[in-house]
Amino acid sequence: MKKVLILVLALSITSCIPYKIAPKFKKEDYKVMKAKKFQRKLPNETSFIFKDPKDAYEFYNYLNKKYNLENKYVGVNTPFQINNETYYLSYSEVERTDETLNLPLIVIDAKREQNGNSALFVDGYTSRKGHWYLVITVYDEELNNCLLDKHPIKPLVLKYLIDLKHEYLTTHNYEELLFVEKS
User: Fold this and answer.
1) Which of 20, 67, 75, 171 satisfies CB 3.0 to 4.6 Å to 99 for a cystine?
2) Sign of the CA dihedral running 138, 141, 144, 148
3) What is the distance, to the nearest Å, from the Cα of residue 146 to the centroid of all Cα atoms in its chain?
4) In angstroms, rounded to a whole number, what is the distance separating the alpha carbons of residues 80 and 89?
């Protein structure tokens, strides 16, 4: 019994306990869901969400070049065409984090303070790693959300967004988008 207690104590002292975990999409590399469920500060609109491994403002630059917007309406009601119908795309960049509690550093500092020494690892009690996501919402001319299940164009919009995501993640020089035929 004593050995088991020592083993449990050793494992708990040498471990890091995660208390916040960024979402990982299981079946696909994107998810269509209410943005507010993904992050509370977002509106309660159905959105297309995927992880963005690129630097900040890269999606802005991508949209600006792809649709030749000249820094106007980039990411806020950006117009695009599907089957000669105009739709409007809006997006947000959102950070979600993985955060862990580092028990060994807390235990070491507690022991140091008990012995009359100052704490060494105060800044290391927790660790944090950020992950960025793009949350995209698409509206039609009547301002109806095109990602709702009841919207008749949802399959086409979803395919368009999947292709857009793929093109964004695989394109490194956005200038070459100017030579690609617009869809």
Assistant:
1) 20
2) negative
3) 21
4) 8
Residue 174 clears pLDDT 50, i.e. is over it = yes
- Whole-number Cα distances in Å, 19 to 25, 29, 125, 134, 181: 19, 23, 13, 23, 47
**Beta partners for residue 79, in sequence order:** 88
- The residue with greater pLDDT, 4 or 89, is 89
Residue type, 33: M
Sequence spans of domains, the chain: 2-179
The DSSP secondary-structure symbol of 172 reads S
pTM of the model: 0.78
**Contact residues for 122 (Cβ-Cβ < 8 A; gap 6+):** 109
The single-letter DSSP state of residue 119 is P
Q: Tell me the DSSP string of 36-104.
A: HHH-TTS-S-EEEEEE--SPTTHHHHHHHHHTT-TTSSSSSSEEEEETTEEEEEEEEEEEEEEEEEEHH
Q: Is the pLDDT of residue 45 over 90?
A: yes
